From TrEMBL, chains A, B, C, D:
Gene3D superfamilies per the UniProt record, alphabetical: Zn peptidases
Name of this chain's protein: Amidohydrolase
Lineage of the species this protein comes from: Bacteria, Bacillati, Bacillota, Bacilli, Bacillales
Signal peptide (residue range): none
Positions of the Peptidase M20 dimerisation domain: 218-306
Pfam families assigned to the protein according to its UniProt record, in alphabetical order: M20_dimer (PF07687), Peptidase_M20 (PF01546)
């Protein structure tokens, strides 16, 4: 697993361009006897969000091939359909168990400082501006380690085991497309997991609930340029629309039933000092402690985005580029996870809830679907010691934490009949 | 004239409620042999702007009667149609000469300081919150003085003399309605006049051009109130819409072809500190050095007014409550006015243009119509020494300046055949 | 009590002008044997907030006399020091029990509709623009009823009973001044109570915790007026500063540790459409689920209030006109209250917490002081059927709910030795 | 001249990095017998504005050497002191004549379309992102052509001829530094000239007056980043400060004494969607029809820039990166220019004023200094047919227009004793 993780780390691929990673995952799952579904079979064409431009996809696919992608699998993923599902049917009756592992890196330039272990030990990312700074390299490796282990213990298993390798979790862009492709429809018991998030090494959280529902929106205002000295009246000022949107977005009312958020994280407008800005681009996000609160903020945000364009007679285009729901881990499942975790030597403590205000996570889409179908779902966290915080250029995990994760999850699968389902 | 002026000053009546003033004007014109038209004959029902509420009109009509209005004429003016036109047909051929005098006071509480002459001499306004602080009491008296004089010299006159006593000049609300009623349609030569405006006593301006085209807009945003502590999300915040409008109205681009203006002079919003404001009222005005510039600012303003409502999902209602055009006094007419003014003893100097940046004036509507019909029009200023600036609570004129005005205008009428018309 | 309540209702007096009410309270307490402290003895001169102008105070004091205030007591209250404390020392040892009742009405015009009971039955407020629309008339009557009853049962009591009749609870302006005057310093057990607040008749809440910490701020921007057409550059625009403040105040960040609020409830700016606004007045409030959150919002608000003035080079003056803290009713005291309430026939149900998100309440200042001194404090709600919501022009209570309140509170005092104190 | 112009065009160098251009100019002037001053002798160290970072200067100096710069001269210019002055003293008495030619290119990527002549004929700019899109390549060539011609006619000349080759006119950054270095102090008669600007081929403008006084300001807000979901209260939002600045900058009052402008042409803020923006950069400019109006706008702008930072408790740094004054060409000099221009065959028409609203030009700094010292100054335009507007990626001039310019300017110098000086 350490080797795999370092390999994925070195060839970090960000959301929707996990061509090399996904091809290696698919290839290995197939080798170990899994039925593999890939690409458009498991990623709905219309439900993807925040997909990069076509030429960027093409360049990255080409690079993946140069960097050792398994050529056989690339056509499935071409165009950014980089999801993989591996299915292991046992001979014994039992539930369909879904396990989610995300594969994408972040758009961050990794540190080349000598005190950064991946740099020192030679597996720092060689892909410029892409870095595994959130541990998804470990997630993919844990998934593979677990898949290999379970394939070797097939006779001791019951039910069906479904490994779901998800693209584009960063920006909460990928999960919805796998849900819409039907991947979750037969899943009875579902676990998504994450490493780190501030939980110390040796500790397991059986079901984190703190995720905020969120929507990510890209907004572009398009006006008309004009010389600011010579003929200001001929311009349509996209920046004035954008600045009004910024101030007013932040003024969306607080909600009395829980936490809400809105942020304009990025604004870029204009082409030159003496030109009325003809374009402005915003990266916006809304969040809510409940789905309803997020929808309230979102609806207000869209009114503001449109209204500010109308004020300055400029065009506006906005696009939903990411979405996630709140999590609500099933109590019964959490109890079962706590039971099996107790039996793992490496687990030194267990918590039922994360102490940290979490951000957002689109595995919540999967959890929501499973629960709506009457199944159980939980979001498990495996603690590890971090060299630096998530999304930091010096982020690094303790690799032996992957052992704890594989052991816990394998016990989870092996003992599934101890979990009484309705 | 001094007696009349002090009487009008004491019983000051603001725009559209000049019931007493107009009834006295109509009564005297009739007495002196003028054909009098009044009320809806000379004020178009649909073209009035900024008319006060019905009950306010009714109260003021009642008060006018109590204060000595001529009862016979009140029915004509009832409901706020306080315009009067007096026509004197001579037996000799000649042009139709139009002369405009405005009658309305301002919504200002007059000073009760003993150094304010009207207070000292006992003719301070007794109508609370209404004051002749712009000299329209003198204008009305000049008009009457001139009308009486000319009626006595009828044999020496030629053509037709048309006295136009206009309501609601303040806020540029009344002229359009008289133009739309057809009052200007037969006028060949037109003079509107004003006293003061910074011109010293003894000086005459033959044709002021500096007026800005303007539009006055009342805006009301209507949202939904909610308790700001308990359920802020249930509110629709009219004040946020209004505040966005204020900032963005002021950001309408400058115009490269001339001066422009925009102002939000008054904003009132909200009912209590702990309530999301459900209403906001704005008094807005736009101006332009040309009609086109004013229209540019106005069009942008309306986009902003509507867009800011859309941003906060509140209703918006706006109403045009005043409008004026730019003036452009006819060169030929100015020359003639300079000639006759020279012959008046009290005139010590003559200028062809006002040195002061003027505000706006709706006689420009009348000038525009006359010129469009091929006639000549000018805006004449008669200088006077002011106790305090226009619209100040201690504004006061030098009464003998009215003599200079009547003499100049009577010479203007008497010698009209010296003005060669096409 | 009904008679008292209707009398207070008819002669409603708003915050800091409870001259008549306070004089009647003081007079009766004295009559029943209480040691009475009034005016500056119990209201700190420097800690009052949101006091009306001196002439308003004077007019209302004069009116109070005309409407039957007890002349002897007025000098104590003159200038707006309308607090009263009545102390009953028993002969038995025991704790000092503080009981808070607020006396002020709201600045609301009461309904004159015939379906409004006070109008129908002839005790509608005759004081224009003032109305008991929050039940403080009932609170004062309950306080008096309880005081009379206890004075008659003095032998059965132990410890010291301290009745605290507070002015200016609306706007959270008065409690701090009584705390700062030392009124709470010897109190061991404290109960503030409120009627209604959405709790049904027959129900008692033993200790409401939902109050938000809050600060009320009045802001005035002062710029320079100028003619908007003639010389806009000579103005300093107070409305632009205010509008910027409004938008930016609403954009203060949400706080991850709990609910926060900010509201600009009222904005009034400008004097005329064509004048650059030289003044703008805002009524602002901040709130927080904890005192720390409110302080965070407040600190940001003050930066914004000052910064927006600096932007437009106008002066700004702001004043804290109200403050309250969060409540945190003592668990032990709540349990005791539940015990005694159970023994009251009229009490049909008891809750330990209010289901309604409450606003703010400055009795929290008193609770805070008592608890800091090692005492116990609780905020008790007595349910009643409301004709219309609090602060509505048709608000009305069910008068017999006052019985339930007096019985519960008298049992509370009588059995105080059942409450084990440290 | 055509050859020179094409060479400069190909090796376009933007403001403060005209290393190659300036070295060739200095080298040739020296060769032709001019006394040459260069670098810090003619560019004041402290008065340069908008100088690029040191490493950018260094890279461009290196490139200049690679592209044929005259090595001998480079040390003078090193660090971005790329001004050159060439002085020709004649033996006859007479005035000091100053002639300004600017040398810098724009930060624009030149078109590689085959219908763009420089591309077709092989002298398109090979320096990425730099292009002579405003004709300064022609200006430099005209200056050199004129310098060569005059050096050959030295005996026919009188007084002193001073060629001023200015860096960094774009962004109005360079002139002030040459003025402050004393370059203009002995100049009696000064002409700055420009090609194109909408004037047709064959036409000369003897003295353009339409330039607006301007100031260019770079603004950076620096706040504190924080996770927008997890702990928004820990951020200090630089974008909110910037957005407030944008809206309020545009709301600076119009000025009644003439045209004014303000523009935020570029805004870049934030690093990621889910991060509170910790930085925001703005490119701002102000303009005025008079120096006083520009100063009024600038003073207001600085208040707004600072106040918006204070509102959001972020740091702000602003820097003046460009400045120009208004031009006011001397009437006597214009008349003389018209006389000599008439004698040039290529000149088909002469205007005394440009019909086009011009932008800004920092030769106005030089004109201002000369006039303050009692000299005469004018801004001359030589018409030419343009392939596309100034600052367009396909901008191109008609090369033979350079002949008209050289002939007119040489006649101007040769006949200088016809210009009667005081």
């Amino acid at each position: 697993m350490v080797e795999w993780r370092r390999d994925f780390h070195k060839y970090a691929e960000s959301g929707w361009v996990e061509f090399r990673t996904a091809s290696l995952v698919a290839s290995r799952l197939e080798e170990w006897g899994y039925t593999v579904k890939a690409g458009k079979e498991v990623v709905d064409v219309n439900a993807r969000m925040g997909v990069p431009p076509a030429d960027f996809l093409k360049e990255n696919e080409k690079r993946a091939l140069d960097q050792g992608a398994v050529a056989k699998w690339l056509p499935s993923f071409s165009g950014g359909f980089t999801g993989v599902v591996g299915i292991l049917k046992t001979n014994k009756p039992g539930p369909v168990i879904g396990l989610r592992f995300d594969m994408d890196a972040l758009d961050i330039q990794e540190s080349d400082s000598e005190d950064h272990v991946p740099q020192r030990d030679g597996y720092v990312s060689i892909n410029e501006g892409m870095m595994h700074a959130c541990g998804h390299d470990a997630h993919t490796s844990i998934g593979l380690g677990l898949a290999k282990l379970l394939s070797e213990m097939k006779d001791e298993l019951s039910g069906t085991i479904k490994f779901i390798f998800q693209p584009a979790e960063e920006g909460v862009r990928g999960a919805k497309s796998m849900v819409e492709a039907g991947v979750m429809d037969d899943v009875d018991v579902f676990v998504a997991s994450h490493i780190g998030t501030g939980i110390p090494a040796g500790e397991v959280v059986s079901g984190a609930n703190g995720f905020l529902s969120t929507t990510k929106i890209d907004v572009t205002y398009t006006g008309v340029a004009a010389h600011a000295g010579g003929s200001p009246e001929e311009g349509k000022n996209a920046l004035l629309a954008a600045a009004s949107a910024v101030l007013n977005l932040h003024s969306i009312p607080r909600h009395s039933s829980g936490q809400s958020r809105v942020n304009v994280g990025v604004l870029k407008a204009g082409s030159g000092r003496n030109i009325i800005p003809a374009s402005a681009h915003l990266k916006v996000e809304t969040r809510g402690e409940t789905i309803e609160i997020n929808e309230f903020i979102l609806e207000n945000a869209i009114n503001i985005i449109k209204g500010s364009a109308a004020m300055h007679d400029v065009d506006v285009h906005y696009e939903i580029v990411g979405e996630a729901k709140t999590s609500d881990s099933s109590a019964r499942l959490k109890t079962y996870i706590e039971e099996v975790a107790k039996e793992v030597d490496e687990v030194r403590s267990i918590r039922s809830e994360s102490p940290n205000a979490a951000g957002s996570e689109d595995a919540t889409y999967m959890m929501d679907r499973v629960k709506k179908n009457g199944g159980l779902a939980s979001y498990v966290i495996f603690g590890t010691t971090l060299a630096a915080g998530h999304h930091n250029e010096k982020f690094d995990i303790q690799e032996d934490s992957m052992i704890m994760a594989v052991k816990t999850l394998s016990k989870f699968v092996l003992n599934i009949d101890r979990l009484k389902l309705d």
